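Sync notes, pocket subgroup
Present: LS, DG
LS reminded everyone that the earlier model was apo-only. Rerun requested with guanosine-5'-monophosphate included. Inputs:
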Amino acid sequence: MKQNLQNLQLPGIPLVLSGPSGCGKGTIVKALLRKYPELFALSVSATTREPRPGEVHGVQYYFIDRKEFEGRIADGQILEYTEYCGNYYGTPKKELYERTMRGINVILEIEVEGAMNIRRLCPEAVLIYVLPPDAESLEARLRGRGTNTEEDIRARLATAREEIRLLPAYDYLVINDDNPSCSAEESAEIAADRIVRILEAESRRVSRNLENAVHFFD
Ligand code: 5GP
C-alpha cells in the first residue's frame, strides 16, 4: 500500500533532561508542558523516598516502599532505576511505551546514570543536558532558593562537577540563560522553545522515518 508521509503517526520520542540541581530543569519542564501540552507528557517515576510537603502520589512521583519497588524490578516493570541518597528512583516501563506509541514525546527528568541507561535501552531517545551560562550563576541560583544549607549547596556543586564529565554522552546542550531583563519563567520558556526546535529536527531524521519512506513507491 502506498504511504502518505504527511498523515503518518510517528512514535513519540523519549526526551531525557538532565542537569545540575539549580539549572532550572524543573521550570523548563513546566514551561514545556504548559506551552506544548499536545506535544509532551512527563514520565512520573517511582521512588521509595518520602513525599515532600505538597507532593502528591502519581503527580511528582509514585511513592512506594522498598518491597514494592523491588517487586516491580523483579517483574520487569521498571525500565531503569538508580539508588540516590539511599532511595530507589525508577522509570515505569508501561507508561513510557504506551505514550510514545501514541505519538507523545515523553520527558524523563532523571540524573546522569539513569540517562546513560536510557541511552542503552532506548537508542531512539534524545538526551539533553541543561546548564546555566556559568558556574557562578549556578551557585547563585542554589543560594537564591534560600532553602538549601551551606553544606547542601557544597554537596550539590560537587555532584554537578562530577556529573558534567558525562556531558559528551549527551546529544544536545541547552543553556538556560540568565538574562537580567527576564524572569526565571521567561528564561525557561526560551529554553523550552530551544528544546522544541531540537525535537522538530530529531523527528525529521531519516532513521526515524525510514520504514515508512522506503515504501513511498510501493
Ligand atoms: P529528588 O529526590 O530531588 O526528587 O530526586 C533526586 C534525583 O533523582 C534527581 O536527580 C532526579 O532527576 C533523579 N530521578 C528522579 N526520578 C528518576 C528515575 O526514574 N530514574 C533515575 N535514574 N533518576 C531519577
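DG: Residues 184-203 form the longest helix (20 residues).
LS: The chain has eight helices and nine strands.
Action: DG to write up.
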